[in-house]
Structure to design on (578 residues):
DNA sequence: CCAGATATGAAATGTTTATTCCGTAAGCGG
DNA sequence: CCGCTTACGGAATAAACATTTCATATCTGG
């Protein structure tokens, strides 16, 4: 007997066999199809009561569709629910136990894998980033006198891009790069009307943390882009974007962070335009970055 | 002690008390904040293993935040996940419908749009990049004595990332950055056994073109990442990757290029590993030198 | 460096939860 | 209406699980 191991398959099978089920099993089928996340979360006892059948019937139902027990079937519902919110890395972890597929080795496979992972990360970024945070961040950037951007090592590329984009919007944007060993000197430029954008992922660069502390001391506002709610950057920041980057093996990507900073820059461009919109007409062309 | 009974409250409390927690409890806090749906679904034993703490610590953690047990706290996560799923599905639908809409203006819309455009670009990248080119490029990189990376202005971020990644694979990788106005001097380093990776998109930076010409003159091999088959970079290169970047209004993205260079770097890492494996298999048990 | 306090982790414990069992009831062909 | 088969449900059982316990390790202030 073929046992469906994904939600939509199972749904189809239940529907198609509905007619031939016994009265009690039909009752279960109806409940199961209509209360997906009750099945995913609740215990057999609870479900049995809500569906108005004895617990044993639930096990019989699962058996009828080829599962070894009700919990076995329950897994299908849980996975379905998780897949709607889990990111690529977490999903990969989920499936690693089930079928430990060998890591991709061919360049083409690696590109496919990376591309898939990044797609997932981008979708999650869009879904999980709050409009409120984005608006606040844009507002903060718009009001900044100077914008200092820091991101070292892996995050340096994102930092350079953001600086580039901000410069193209005629912002006074400065990249803290430690050139000539002058981290300290660069940090000391920051004043209370300035804004710091700090980008850092575990393991957090010492210099980035030092900057956020300095910025916090002088009262500058801060926007953090990092990988955890409890990142050391989070505590100092006014706005903290938590970005779950795609990961293939030990290699973490940057696409989501890049997408985020691009969106911030473009939003800032529109923000500028809206300010001017008071007297001029809407939809003035925006120069590219 | 007030016990949070919704997710965002709990999240806030955990973050604010993070500093005063013990080392182990911090470990749990980080896991709990960053793996919401693992907490919602997995058993204490599984979570304990993944967070690398003993099960009892999880109960202690829940107690520390006023819950009677870990399951008590778990309920908060489960409720959150259920609510979130509903939102997520809605947003996913919005995301799809967004496609043919007038220019977005709100930061949230811009992020959605950028994310969507990048997803498309990544999928196209994966579909259109030939395995053969990838293999050749990896081979060329593997054989390089020195690798010079150039990408200016918009492409600088991609170039910095590639340089970073190559350095981490112990390659002799150098970023041509024109620091101190020394473009010319940096170019003159290139020798016939070296490889140049040039990243440039229209309008092509003069310095990048100059480098490719120099490289070609001394007989160095070249890998180009650019936006057109007829790009000035294409003619000088041994391998030319044509990347169609996402574009929102006048703003072009970088995600696809970044994904490509990451894939190249990771492929190179696997290439190295295979080499070592072959060597060690073949290695004859010879003593002395 | 020591004593007291606190944090930690392995194993024991007690509870919840899934599953099985079996006597009974309902359906069905003769 | 009877005997046979299939479905059913409650109670018993087994498995999984969360939680507690306690001996040990680690910190902290004097």
């Amino acid at each position: 007997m073929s046992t469906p191991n994904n939600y939509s398959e199972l749904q189809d099978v239940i529907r198609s066999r509905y007619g031939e089920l016994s009265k009690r099993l039909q009752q279960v089928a109806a409940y199961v199809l209509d209360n997906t996340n009750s099945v995913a979360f609740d215990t057999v006892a609870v479900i049995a009561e809500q569906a108005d059948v004895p617990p044993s019937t639930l096990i019989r139902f699962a058996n009828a569709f080829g599962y070894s027990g009700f919990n076995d079937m329950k897994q299908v519902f849980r996975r379905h629910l998780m897949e709607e919110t889990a990111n690529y890395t977490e999903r990969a972890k989920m499936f690693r136990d089930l079928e430990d597929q060998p890591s991709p080795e061919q360049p083409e496979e690696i590109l496919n894998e990376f591309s898939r992972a990044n797609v997932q990360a981008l979708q999650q970024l869009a879904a999980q980033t709050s409009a409120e945070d984005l608006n606040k961040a844009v507002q903060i950037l718009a009001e900044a006198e100077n914008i200092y951007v820091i991101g070292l090592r892996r995050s340096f590329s994102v930092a350079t891009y953001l600086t580039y984009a901000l410069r193209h919007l005629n912002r006074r944007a400065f990249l803290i790069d430690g050139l000539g060993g002058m981290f300290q000197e660069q940090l000391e430029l920051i004043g209370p009307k300035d804004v710091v954008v700090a980008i850092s992922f575990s393991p957090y660069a010492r210099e980035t943390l030092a900057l956020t502390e300095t910025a916090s001391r002088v009262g500058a506002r801060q926007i953090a882009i990092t990988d955890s709610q409890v990142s050391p950057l989070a505590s100092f920041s006014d706005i903290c974007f938590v970005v779950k980057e795609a990961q293939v093996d030990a290699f973490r990507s940057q696409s989501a962070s890049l997408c985020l900073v691009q969106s911030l820059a473009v939003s800032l461009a529109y923000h500028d335009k809206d300010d001017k919109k008071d007297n001029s007409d809407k939809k003035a062309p925006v120069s590219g970055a």
Observations:
- Strands of chain A lie at 147-150, 173-176, 195-199, 221-226, 239-242, 247-248, 251-252.
